[in-house]
Design goal:
The protein has 275 residues and is of the alpha/beta class. The protein has one domain: Spore Coat Polysaccharide Biosynthesis Protein SpsA, Chain A (Alpha-Beta Complex). The protein contains 10 helices and 13 strands. The strands form 3 sheets. It has a 9-stranded mixed β-sheet with strand order 5-4-1-6-11-8-12-10-9, with helices on both faces. A two-stranded antiparallel ribbon has the order 2-3. A hairpin with a 2-residue loop joins strand 9 and strand 10. The longest helix has 18 residues. It is globular, with a radius of gyration of 18 Å.
């Protein structure tokens, strides 16, 4: 069983300034829940109840959110508002939360390497809260866990994107070995359209084996001088240890204004249907 899930959450969220000047981007709400809470709920549904969060300066609101607020709970105890905390209380009761700081922003690979102290020598999940996913019928991370249990390899979530958008993503070079499952030969970080090996883009869900840390330590800085997780995974792909899963469900890029609004509209429509 995969018990641990890592959340890189040290970025500045500059695309949402000035909202993120004093508030972590991971705490921006889709309706009544912050982005990172959706991610933790997804991790728990996949059996991952040990949550590691890589934070940075100005991110204390994340730790406060996943903690009990005695004054608030006393104030609303016995009122209709008490039920509004049931979701977050469920996470607090069923998960443990650990934190470490990324003191410099040197890329996603560096953030994951910073989280090694929270993970140890275990296979673990990685969720980027910016990518809000709705799995069909079950969560994206649950789909990935099943594939890991079958193949014992690193798993990355992938989806088709228009060719004129491949420059925004890591893109895979792979061969489909079963329906929706690709054996990766390599991957390229944010290629130009004419240099992209495919239009299958990597999104913010990973299952990584612990040897990824040793690979990251020996990986040279790549695009923009940052330590890229795609470069480390490309090394492991050459050893036949990486699979891509074209997941079933929807993904909203909440790191962009358009995706954030799209997610808000989607979840609002779901709430209306439930009512």
């Amino acid at each position: 069983m995969i018990r641990k899930c890592l959340f890189p959450a040290a970025g500045y969220g500059t695309r949402f300034l000035p909202a993120t000047k004093a508030m972590p981007k991971e705490m921006m709400p889709i309706l009544d829940k912050p982005l990172i809470q959706y991610g933790v709920e997804e991790a728990l549904k996949a059996g991952m109840n040990q949550i590691g969060i890589v934070t940075g300066r100005g991110k204390r609101a994340i730790a406060d959110h996943f903690d009990i607020s005695y004054e608030l709970e006393h104030q609303i105890s016995g009122t209709a508002k008490e039920g509004k905390l049931s979701g977050i209380r469920h996470l607090i009761d069923h998960c443990t939360f650990s934190y470490t700081r990324q003191t410099e922003m040197k890329g996603l690979g560096h953030a994951i390497l910073t989280g090694e102290t929270l993970i140890g020598a275990e296979t673990f999940g990685v969720i980027l809260a910016d990518d809000l996913c709705v799995g069909e019928p079950d969560t994206v991370m649950s789909q990935m866990v099943r594939l890991y249990e079958k193949h014992q390899a690193c798993i990355i979530a992938i989806e088709e994107v228009p060719m004129d958008e491949v420059h925004k993503y890591g893109v895979i070079d792979g061969v489909e070995i079963e329906d929706g499952v690709y054996k990766l030969n390599g991957m390229v970080e944010k290629p130009a359209a004419d240099e992209a090996p495919s239009n299958l883009a990597i999104i913010g869900r990973y299952i990584l084996m612990p040897e990824i840390f040793d690979v990251l330590r020996t990986t040279a800085p790549g695009k923009n001088g940052e330590l890229q997780i795609t470069d480390a995974l490309a090394t492991m792909a050459k050893q036949g240890k990486v699979l891509g899963l074209k997941f079933r469900g929807k993904r909203f890029d909440c790191g962009s204004v358009n995706g954030f609004v799209e997610a808000t509209n989607y979840f609002f429509s779901q709430m209306e249907e439930e009512d």
